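Hi there,

I know you've been waiting on this one. I reran it after we fixed the sequence typo, so this is the corrected version. Both the input and the resulting structure follow.
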Amino acid sequence: MHAGLQLTAVALAGLGLAAPTALAGTWWIDNRFPLMAVLALVAGLRPNLELAPAGRLAVAACLALAVTVRTGWITPVWYERQADVRALQRAVEAVPAGAAVLPVDNIDDGVAPSAYPRGRYFHNGQPTHWSLPVLVIMWRHAFIPNLIWAAGKQPLCVLPPWDEISFPEDGLWPAQSLVDASQTPKHFRTWRDRYDYVLLMNADVGRGADLSGLANLRLERDEGFARLYRVVKG
């Protein structure tokens, strides 16, 4: 083994126990350190197995089988969730270039985690669809506020006046933040004036937030997972 890497793995494991979940706008810190510790541990090991060629081949085959089984398990999950990507793409087909689109997340606390499609959430409850709206930038050349552009951490920079309504960390605010003014974050309070569309994600499970009842919103496309509402000015 490599002593330096093993000491590094122990130190990273200790940091994982002591680290907070979030710091300076960065999340999953307590999850990152243990993963780094495992990688350092594996990278620092080079076992010298006193085995015959047949034994070495058997060990290599077992390791390859483990990787293959895990890949075979995760691949169908990724494939199923492509349906969400396609639904999002259909929902935003009519969005013109240069439009501002505000994505929000449909959250129903009364729905059990097992009711959601497989792969919609990570093992710890974090949504896997939080970053999907960013695809609208490439598809439609439209503005999306939840880019990851925090100063000092990312190379992106959102220019004025867009930075006034942009969120420097990735993530989706719940749809309730538009319904209840007390939950509306500062940079979204003028959303009726600054945005052209509202994009509701994760809309196919639970009661489903109906934003049509909000003033100045009109349903444009309902593709199940994704609903697009137009902000009617005036």
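Quick highlight: The first strand starts at residue 22 and ends at 23.

Best,
R. S.
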